[in-house]
């Protein structure tokens, strides 16, 4: 009789364990998925649905745009083969900022130093970035393109007047409302032409630019 009772107790414990195990394995439903935080604003625009200004209202007031996501980060790499000018300077357009664009961030990553294969002299190579072809350096001040790999733009002294903290307007550069603005990279050789108008006189070199800009509606 004792044996039967013991067996009954064991069976009861096993069954209780199975019930508990099943309860532990039961998946508790999670919270419902979050609502999307962006939605199409028409014409390819993306508008926020969770962080909007309260629109103005009243006689004579028109809300032209309730709010859109218009900030983007752009990346472009320029290799030595881009510089073929038969001159000691060579200009390459790295981007065109549309009208009503606010440029708030820019850095250059020199991933491979520039060097001359012939004609020019490696130790004399420098770069600037401006808004026009020529000596303009309003975005990035002159930096060595031949010395060592580095980041340019992580110190205020490396920025041009348009982006340096002391001279930038509202911590950035605002383009004209009626026209676009070029962003021009200039490579300068202190001695000898950079190319022959067809091919470059450089043997190596690569620089990558990161830009963050907001296009106003």
Q: How helical, in percent, are the residues?
A: 10-25%
Distance between the termini: 89 Å
Order of helices and strands: HEEEEEEEEEEE
Strand content: 35-45%
State the shape. Answer: elongated
Radius of gyration (Å): 31 Å
DSSP summary, beta strand count: 11
Secondary-structure-based class equals: mainly beta
Uncertain ranges: 18-28, 30-41
Given the structure, what is the number of helices? 1
Mean pLDDT metric? 85
Main sheet: strands, sense, barrel = 5 strands, antiparallel
Question: Could you explain how this protein is built, in words?
Answer:
With 217 residues, the protein is mainly β. The protein has a domain of 136 residues. 11% of the residues lie in helices and 38% in strands. The chain is built from 1 helix and 11 strands, in the order H-E-E-E-E-E-E-E-E-E-E-E. Strands 3, 5, 8, 9 and 11 form a 5-stranded antiparallel beta sheet that branches. Strands 4-10-6-7 form a 4-stranded antiparallel beta sheet, with no helix packed on it. It has a two-stranded antiparallel ribbon with strand order 1-2. A hairpin with a 2-residue loop joins strand 1 and strand 2. The termini are far apart.
